[in-house]
Amino acid sequence: MFTIDWTPDLEVGVAEIDEDHRVMVAMLNRIMKAGGRHETTQAVLEELGRYTLHHFEREERLMVECRYEFADLHRREHRALYDEIRHQIDDLIARERRLSELAKFMQRWLLRHIVAEDRLLALAIRRHRETQVTAESED
Length: 139
Fold this sequence. Notes:
CATH class: Mainly Alpha
CATH topology: Four Helix Bundle (Hemerythrin (Met), subunit A)
Structural class: mainly alpha
Largest sheet: none
Distance between the termini: 55 Å
CATH architecture: Up-down Bundle
Number of domains: 1
Helix content: over 70%
Order of helices and strands: HHHH
Radius of gyration: 17 Å
Number of helices: 4
């Protein structure tokens, strides 16, 4: 199983989102390095599920703050992913499903989400923040 190396091309340019992504990648890497130890894997998966929800809540607050035009779509994607994560975690715990299946799913999703969805959101957040700074300096 492979781990994800955090590189600058995974950054979206919004510090709090980038930090959340770093934490999520680190958790996925811990799962991959656990080598199938069920107790360790289960604990980290539960932590990852909670942290993912925290991350989504943060992004959704930022969407409201910057009046992100694609917020509804982004929110729906968050809900669908969180439901899928919970389903897979519960399935893994209940039936000791292969860890590699869940880890690969999470890796693919996280990388695709960062590159596609979160970069658009980050652009809107940065523009909003620049507008706020400009407006404050004009006062």
